[in-house]
Amino acid sequence: MKSDFTYDLVIIGGGISACVFASKYLKNNITKKVALIEIGRGLGGRSSTRISKRFKGWKLNHGAPNFNISNSKNNLLLKSYIDELLENKFIKIDDSDIFFLNEDSNSETTKKI
Asked: Which end of the chain has fewer CB atoms within 10 angstroms, the N or the C?
């Protein structure tokens, strides 16, 4: 099978690191063509959230969907990317309760700080 597609850069894998890299690369190379190839159901890699169809308001986070951004001030690349995602409403600060299973498989709740 022959393809007529031509790219300046091909990125294999659409995880969060690949997405950040592609975004920053394109900002600095606006005339370049980039292909981002992902085999999964969407971009973001192991960071994903499933929304319950059965229970309104319930979400189940898989992988590493939550990360601590309290120290992003020391990482200018991370801070600029988070600010951009917040500004464009791709992400939001989630202050909802966290439910998790402890070592005895009992459900516990904690409030995010």
From this structure: N
